[in-house]
Amino acid sequence: MPGCATCDRFLSPPTVTPEGRCPSCGRPVEPGGAHPRGEDPERTPPGEGEPAGEEDLGPVPLHIKILGVALVVYLGYRFFQGVEWVIHRI
Ligand SMILES: [Zn+2]
Cα(36) to centroid of ligand 1, in Å? Predict the structure, then answer.
């Protein structure tokens, strides 16, 4: 997280100016590991590609896929149980 040594406080990345300066005193802040906006080569420029918020999502984890398959199998099983129940009621 970027922080201003002059004001002795931490700044969240959106509050830092695009030039990487403190909004209170105007001095350059220490990046603290955060990437300044517009300098990440892997990031697509704004206005291109997918909407923001979905670009950093990696591949779906395996356990999520297994959970999804199990859910589909279970709901399919329950669906056919319901169909069978309806058939027996007719
Ligand atoms: Zn400051």
Answer: 16
